[in-house]
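Consider a protein example.
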Amino acid sequence: ETSALIAGADLTLQGMSVLTSPGQTDLVWQALDVTCAGRVLVTGGAAIDVSGKGYTARRTLNNVEHRSYGGSHAGVGGEANPDSTIPTYGDYLHPGLPGSGGDCSDAKKCAGGGVVTIRAAGLELSDGGIKADGMLFGSGSGAGGSILIEVATLTGVGSTGRIEADGAGDWARNLYTGGGGRVAVYYEQSIGLDDSFVTARAGGRSTATNPNAYGSAGTVYMKKSGELGKLKISNFDPHTSNRAESPHTTNFETIGRHRINSVENVVVDGVSHWILSLPAGALTGHRDYVDYRLDLNAADTEGPFYIIQSADTQNHILTIVTTDDLGLMVGNDLLGVHELLEFEYGPVELWDAGDDRLIVHTP
């Protein structure tokens, strides 16, 4: 469910005020959707904060029950036995799912982070923040949630203006930490942007007696209009300068490698829409495949690459709009392509693109 706030002019939060979503139940969570024709200003200690508004304790994607101390989302939650961790879910272009809850005795006190979407002419943070963090209670740590921002102008993101979907943890305690969530920021121009303070890290802990207790990092995707995007996978905490060293891997494979079973050309208003049918199980319902890139011949690394226009995950169908003739692609293996301006990851962070191809234009 979604709680919507629509502002016809500027929206200002100040003086320690907090805008959040309604409280969730064990089976129902609510996203916060903010649409503003003008500028959203968050200042003076105020926040748009959906921390702890995701899946409740011992619940993960689709409200499936689990018994892992650290919740997962984009990053894997910490757990004594690595075989007991919760699977990750979602995709980095379209954050829209809450974080999993940890394992604790109170349903909401170790819940995962919630979901917030902000669409506005501008977003300005001045001693304010956008937060979708997991919560900590006992030994249970919720995973970070989802933040999606689409604005013309982004101002003041830095040491006093943070954007975070972090997993729960405590650098002063020995516990299991929540995995990182997902943040995606789309903007046309920025003023004073320090994206080291845009985070989706796992929670911290005091010691590394059991490294499996550290969760892995989530995903931060930043894209300026007209440019390729930047993907960051980092467990660095810019506020304490600590870094969680997790043995768990952040996997961002989105499409993988699949055989093209059939291709159909459907012409709509004179434009060719190529319908690609893939094997059963190729697509999953918790991902939004729109705008990801494909190489329709996995054996040829030179491309061309095509952008997914739409996806039918139930019938395992992808649609591409192009003037190229794709009819001869039947029988080829396709794979996903992550073409990035920059890819940032820390010295101890583990990541895996799976069968997808990673292309980075800036070392």
Summary: The CA atoms of residues 261 and 277 lie 5 Å apart.
